[in-house]
Amino acid sequence: MGLLIKNGRVIDPAQNLDRAADVLIVDGRVAAIEPGLGSSGHEVLDAADQVVCPGFIDVHVHLREPGQEYKETIATGARSAAAGGFAHVCCMPNTDPAIDDPSVVQLIQDRSVAAIGVKVHVFGAMSKANAGKELAEMGRLADAGVALFSDDAFPIQSSELMRRAMEYARMLHRGVTLHCEDKTLAGDGVMNEGPVSTLLGLRGIPNAAEDIHVARNIELSRLTGVRLHICHVSTRGSVDLVRRAKAQGLPVTAEGCPHHFCLTDEACLGYNTQAKVSPPLRSADDVAAVLEGLADGTLDCIATDHAPHAVNEKDCEFDRAMFGMVGLETVVPLTLDRLVRPGVVPLSEAIAKLTLHPAQVLLGDGQQPPPLADPLMGTLRLGAPGDVTVLDLDRRVVVEPEKLVSRSKNTPFGGWELTGSAVATVVDGKVLMRDGVLVDQEQG
Ligand code: DOR
């Protein structure tokens, strides 16, 4: 018995496919895409008036386990992902202990198998304990199955150490995904440096703190040949640098996050700690540049930087609040409402930014794909893993933080009314969410 997803509009950017068809998944793999497939013996998921896409992939998620389970666990984060429409998430190494040792990789792999079924790709630390002082044992981490290497949240300041980390990553057929921030410039800033920070009397982080490190890391990618993915691009300068690097043929990709394309630093007014994030929310001109980058393909991926924090870590003075916000359950409505509806990014391209392009980031040079990175991930080609996300473009959504599935509720989007949502998530032919409700919740 297989799973038949019936009557949908199938959009698969990898095949340039946009047509009415049924999708049949047998033994966890795509077996047919044809109109009018017979349903006999198969479980049926009706997708009439809905869009059927490859399963969404988020290349930037903080799952917090091990060490900060009060914010999120692999189990709760995976459920939040399934509820948001994600079949795959990639977890960042700033856990406690950091993902700098094969035993931590193993723990995450084991616990994700026991979770709801979303595939969890593990990103390894580049330096021991994320301290930026000495390299982690990257070879052992690659052997243990890490998909990419990252310094997220703890950007490596030494250009020499970054160069060596990139050389190892390249040798190990792994890309790197980097948080670009010059800490000497960012100092103890807590928000974007500009008129709003002045008005609030808060210390600012200038755009240059990001731009300088984007430029540095692009030059180090040129030097080492490593595939470089730039995390959470927030400034016009970064967008321009990535655009130029791509024009020069460098192996550089980048992501944009919903908070950076939906909000300016004015969201911090009133000392709203839900809007405190790193890199910070920027000016209207920067938001316009991120939108331009998403529209012209400079920003390949949409990623959440899902960063759960507990109530007391946000319900405090702005200076003391943690950076970050949850994102897995709001990214699809924000993308459909803010990018697709106004025509900034066509629907098929928005889907590509959540499927094909993140898959390419994970697959890297393709020579030694990481364990969960199937060469056909991110598409619905025949034989591909049966990972599917179903969208209802007309569903009205009101963001209610207390109803989020994530263990943490820190979002600046509470009360937003949006149109469009993920309504089903399927992994390897197994339905995790249907009609907007997690199946494990349906069962009680
Ligand atoms: O806002 C952020 N929160 N940015 C990061 O880079 C890290 C993240 C976190 O781990 O909380």
Description of the molecule:
The structure is a single chain. This protein is α/β, with parallel strands linked by helices and 444 residues long. The protein has two domains: 111 residues, Urease, subunit C, domain 1 (Roll), CATH 2.30.40.10; 309 residues, Alpha-Beta Barrel (TIM Barrel). Strands 1, 2, 3, 4, 5, 16, 17, 18 and 19 form a nine-stranded mixed sheet that branches. Strands 6-7-8-9-10-13-14-15 form an eight-stranded parallel sheet, sandwiched between helices. Strands 11-12 form a two-stranded parallel ribbon. The model has no long low-confidence stretch (mean pLDDT 97). The protein binds (4S)-2,6-dioxohexahydropyrimidine-4-carboxylic acid (DOR). (4S)-2,6-dioxohexahydropyrimidine-4-carboxylic acid binds next to loops.
Instruction: Say what oligomer this is.
Output: single chain
Number of strands: 19
Radius of gyration: 20 Å
- Put simply, the count of helices is 15
Gap between N and C termini: 25 Å
Structural class, by secondary structure, is alpha/beta
Write the layout of secondary structure elements.
Layout lengths: L2 E10 L4 E10 L2 E6 L8 E4 L4 E4 L1 E6 L12 H11 L1 E6 L10 H13 L4 E7 L12 H7 L3 E3 L8 H13 L3 E4 L4 H4 L4 E2 L2 H6 L3 E2 L1 H18 L3 E3 L5 H12 L4 E5 L1 H5 L21 H13 L4 E2 L8 H4 L16 H10 L6 H6 L3 H8 L24 E11 L18 E11 L2 E5 L2 E2 H4 L2
Parallel strand pairs: 1-4, 1-5, 6-7, 7-8, 8-9, 9-10, 10-13, 11-12, 13-14, 14-15
Antiparallel strand pairs: 1-2, 2-3, 5-16, 16-17, 17-18, 18-19
The site of (4S)-2,6-dioxohexahydropyrimidine-4-carboxylic acid has 12 residues, from loops.
